[in-house]
Design a protein that fits this description.
four-stranded antiparallel β-sheet, alpha+beta, DNA-binding
DNA sequence: CTCAGATCCTGTGCGC
DNA sequence: TGCGCACAGGATCTGA
């Protein structure tokens, strides 16, 4: 489900229901996620107020009156606000009961997500300590990316999906950004020059921001807290369009596997690096 | 160090 | 209709 825009939309959607509420109970129905939910979650949470909800990379961080809850939605996780008496469905692994009568319910069919309790300084937690800059921040700029790409043989698509380079850029938005930048996804990162990164970096920011503005991308099962799907799916240029004509030139969209991920591109609009003026 | 591939898990969609 | 296979929005680990 989630890349950065979807996590951002999720956080914004649930915040009004959670802020300043007290957690009065938790229900664990399936403890085994990517990392097991702490067995003592209930005593760690109950009686504490949710003071703030922030996002770092694709993580959501709930600041409690004491300590933090760290969540990652993995590949298939969702958060919804439900009424306390709504019967749980399949893969509803975890509930947080709030004193306003609402329940924060976590559903995750593939169980690649996680929920952790952190006592203090979450930025120093091993999962967060080595993350690259936020893509929408000033720290992520073309000079930075050019510098990190020096001598790198790794293909540019896998490179921008690395969390130690820049966070929050997943398969959809990496694919879409490279299309708009006219860069073949297989191009070695170190072969791109300043001109390329001056183009690519603002495009990544723009694609992510437009996706946030559109409420994210709903491929199958992403819905915001208010039930709305993400309309960015209607703006996808190449992702999920294998063998369909490119909107720009009509050429058939192709796919290759890079870093184990399907990568769609237009062979005409995104020529192999050596065939261009680079 | 760098990079490709396997891996965790369940659901869906396709070809036969 | 049913079966087997490929693939799916992520991130980590292994090993070449």
């Amino acid at each position: 489900m989630p890349e950065l825009p979807e996590v951002e939309i999720t956080g914004r959607g649930i915040s009004p229901f959670l802020l300043h509420q007290i957690i009065i109970g938790t229900v664990i129905r399936q403890q085994q996620l990517r990392v097991a939910i702490p067995s003592e979650l209930n005593q760690l949470c109950v009686g504490k107020e949710i003071k703030a909800i922030t996002r770092r990379a694709k993580y959501l961080l709930l600041q409690l009156s004491e300590g933090y809850l760290l969540n990652h939605l993995g590949m298939s996780g969702h958060l919804r606000i439900v009424s306390q008496d709504l019967a749980p469905g399949k893969h509803d692994h975890l509930d947080f009961l709030l004193n306003n009568g609402h329940t924060l319910r976590y559903n995750d069919p593939r169980r690649f997500g996680l929920w952790l309790y952190i006592e203090k300084s979450p930025e120093h937690h091993p999962l967060l300590a080595h993350l690259g800059p936020e893509p929408l921040s000033e720290a992520f700029n073309s000079a930075y990316l050019l510098n990190r790409a020096q001598q790198k043989n790794q293909n540019i698509k896998a490179f921008i999906m690395r969390n130690d380079i820049v966070v929050g850029v997943g398969n959809i938005y990496a694919t879409e950004s490279l299309f708009f930048a006219g860069i073949h996804p297989q191009t070695p990162a170190g072969k791109l020059n300043q001109y390329d990164f001056d183009k690519l970096v603002p495009i990544i920011k723009q694609v992510l921001q437009q996706a946030i503005d559109a409420g994210g991308t709903t491929l199958r099962d992403f819905y915001a807290a208010d039930g709305k799907p993400g309309y960015f799916v209607n703006q996808l240029q190449v992702y999920g369009r294998k063998n369909l004509p490119c909107f720009q030139c009509g050429t058939s969209i192709q796919t290759i596997m890079l870093g184990g991920r399907s990568s769609a591109f237009c062979p005409n609009c995104q020529p192999i690096a050596h065939a261009t003026s680079r």
